[in-house]
Amino acid sequence: MVVRGSLWVNSFWLLAISHFENDVNTAICSTARTTNEHRRTTNDAFMPLDILALAAHRDDVEQTCAGTLLKMAERGYRTGILDLTQGEMGTRGNAEDRAREAAEAARILKVSWRHALDIPDGRVENTWENRLKIARVIREQRPRVLILPYWEGRHPDHYAASVLGYEAAFLAGLAKLDVDQASANQDLLDKDLKGRGFSRAAETAEGPGALAPGILGPHRPFKIIYASLYFDVRPTFVVDITEQFETRMVALMVYKSQFTDQQAGSGIFPAHKEIRARIESMARYYGMLGGVTYAEPFVQKEVGLVDDVMAIPVKSI
Ligand SMILES: [Zn+2]
Questions:
Q1: Distance (Å, rounded) from C-alpha 20 to C-alpha 8?
Q2: Which residue of 41, 222, 259, 289 is most buried, as measured by CB atoms within 10 A?
Q3: CA-CA distance, 248 to 105, in Å (whole number)?
């Protein structure tokens, strides 16, 4: 039985609305930058990320899969967050506010690395240039698991980020693609086109990029899963975040520019106390599906593989 009443729909609305206009931001969070630099400058052994969560806006990850990231970090895995935009289109706050808040949320969630790209807020598009930017990050951080947003939704940035992330992951694994060289060639192509009176619209689908591999060797995540909280779709599986729920709420509420009661955007943002109630309702609903108190939903495209039918969780009857 799937609840599809108005409360449910409103919950999705609420969670999605906060991104409609805000979000943005980031830079590498200071703690993550320190960690990264440390591991590169004082320890030659580069440590790849185990899990990288990618999303359009700074606080999407906090809303859709932060409990899961925290749980994995508590188990000793290296986690990271890649925000595609910096939040310059937000009704509330600005990109600098969002950067500070994202850094604080990253610290609370124990993520090892966080970075925001410079893709325009409200204009996340699946272009060759954007695929290269993300492919570079995937090669650099080398995650085994990539968490993408679900591929349908209300906000175009959200579903665009899903396809963009998938295609970037594919590109990142192409042995003959040198992402740096491809980016440089793209810049040259742009200048050349501009000089001849053309714009980027003349760009070819694949662009010039199939060159010799650079220092960033090819890498493709082993597993891609989709965080589906923003969309009303039945998840393939849920992750029990009962132990992480309160900390994850704290991480979300550090986005004071978005979630404290204020005049700006009061017509589209729910009141602060309502936000907690709705987020808790969502987590409880997915928890109920999995037989636990709180959970986060995910979709995977592949079938599940079972080794021992005696160990399959979630009660049937
Ligand atoms: Zn968003």
A1: 19
A2: 259
A3: 9
For ligand 1, the distance from its centroid to the CA atom of residue 38, given in whole angstroms, is 31
Is 25 in contact with 83 (CB distance < 8 Å)? yes
Give pLDDT, residue 192.
Answer: 62
How far is ligand 1, taken at its centre, from the CA of residue 17, in Å? 8
Tell the residue number behind the tokens 């991480």, with chain if given: 251
CA of 141 from ligand 1 middle (Å) equals 23
Q: Is the dihedral of CA 8, 11, 13, 16 positive or negative?
A: negative
Measure the CA angle with vertex 89, ends 253 and 169; round to 5°: 80
| Mean pLDDT score across all residues of the chain | 82
Domains of the chain, each with CATH number or no CATH: 6-173+219-311 (3.40.50.10320)
Read off the pLDDT of residues 192-203 as tens digits, 9 standing for 90 and up.
655 554 443 333
Contact present, 117 and 87 (Cβ < 8 Å): no
Q: How far apart are the CA of 308 and the centre of ligand 1, in A?
A: 39
CA of 82 to the centre of ligand 1 (A): 13
